[in-house]
Specification:
The protein has 15 helices and eleven strands. It is α/β, with parallel strands linked by helices. β5 and β6 form a beta hairpin. It comes from Corvus moneduloides.
């Protein structure tokens, strides 16, 4: 009731919004934050949202502060860290979903896909008649946020489906560790790893996500074996992975999330098992602008950039015809920095504000104008470093 009263008092919002301070004693004592999220999944342009006329889904959750644990396999009297394990929702992933910015409807498509797979499973739809495998493959160049998106998706769905599952489990498999130095044992290690996952899947109160990062290392193409460039034991590893996926997909509470930087090296039999094969590329200029905007908002909130300055969105700049005036000047500078940042991945882009401060500012607070100058220099330096590295190869 206290949350509904809060929303009734602030029934008009512009996009996502978050409250962390409350007048209501109950909220103040028991709630860390109240957030309105995912408005951009439905609205293309920034516009007022009347909460009193909207259909709201309320999700109440408690973050697990425990952090990851290691899943070890014993081989020849040696412990191998085969995976890391989180109980969801995890404090470590809080806010990760909102920080990931894409041009296309990647996030909403993934949410809708997994929600549909779990619905079909719950309704006992015959998978012999309508086929789905609960396998997602995200592929694209390094640094574009594929692994982060998988973790954020697992967290998001655990919260959204809390009415159905009491908690989530995320198992991130260390693909490289499953290759034994006695290579013939690697297939057995894969089987052992999935046997441990099976124990988690048996708990029907848990929604289990299996994340296989750089899946190409586990599913090295059998065509390479035929060409004589891969040992026959590699085929056993591929077969073990495919067999385990086929076995585990029978369970309604498991989703397999995979990523790859080198799609052409993945075995086609695995690719065929993926229901969604989503390319995640470098962000466009528009997405870069939104990423930088979120970084600058955070630095203003923490008063590293001071005083606070109004920054316009690209949509607002477009509405005024990109005309420069006192209100739009800083936003147009940011637009130009975003333009020349094209080609950089999201991981690098979110690091650049830190590097800008460390390399060119080094003071407790700075004006927006000075910070944007430093950010522009940091972008130039990033491309210079990439060129120097390329010249050395």
């Amino acid at each position: 009731m206290s949350v509904l009263k809060l929303l009734n008092r602030h029934n008009i919002v512009f996009g996502d919004y978050k409250w962390t301070e409350f007048d209501d004693p109950f909220l103040n004592n028991n709630v860390q934050s109240v957030s309105i999220v995912d408005t951009e999944l439905k609205l293309k342009d920034r516009q007022p949202i009347d909460l009193s006329k909207s259909s709201l889904s309320l999700h109440i959750f408690h973050l697990n502060e425990g952090g990851p644990t290691s899943e070890n396999l014993e081989e020849e009297n040696e412990d191998i860290t085969a995976a890391h394990h989180w109980v969801l929702p995890a404090a470590e992933f809080h806010g990760l979903w909102e920080s990931l910015i894409y041009d296309t409807e990647v996030k909403s498509n993934l949410l809708d896909y997994v929600t549909t797979t779990l619905l079909f499973s719950d309704k006992n739809v015959d998978s012999n008649l309508i086929s789905w495998n609960r396998v997602v493959l995200l592929h694209g160049p390094p640094g574009t946020g594929k692994t982060s998106l998988c973790k954020a998706l697992a967290q998001k769905l655990t919260i959204r489906l809390s009415y159905r599952y009491r908690y989530g489990q995320l198992i991130e498999i260390n693909s490289h560790s499953l290759f034994s130095k006695w290579f013939s044992e690697s297939g057995k290690l894969v089987t052992k790893m999935f046997q441990k996952i099976q124990e988690l899947v048996d708990d029907r109160d848990a929604l289990v996500f299996v994340l296989i990062d750089e899946v190409e290392s586990l599913t090295a193409a059998r065509s390479a074996f035929k060409a004589g460039t891969e040992p026959s034991d590699a085929i056993r590893v591929v077969n073990a992975v495919l067999t385990q996926i086929d076995q585990i997909k029978r369970y309604p509470n498991v989703v397999i999330l995979t990523t790859s930087n080198i799609t052409e090296k993945i075995d086609m039999a695995f690719v065929d098992r993926a229901d969604i094969k989503q390319y995640i590329g470098p962000p466009s200029t528009a997405a870069i602008f939104r990423i930088y905007l979120s970084c600058l908002e955070e630095l203003m909130k923490c008063q590293i950039i001071y005083p606070r300055q109004q920054l316009l969105t690209l949509r607002e700049l477009e509405m005024i015809g990109f005309i420069e005036n006192n209100v739009s000047k800083l936003s147009l500078v940011l637009k130009e920095i975003s333009r020349k940042s094209a080609g950089l991945g999201g991981r690098v882009l979110r690091k650049l504000p830190f590097l800008a401060h460390a390399l060119y500012i080094q003071s407790p607070s700075v004006t927006m104008t000075t910070f944007l100058q430093a950010l522009s220099l940091a972008v130039d330096k990033q491309f210079e470093e990439k060129k120097n590295l390329a010249d050395c190869v």
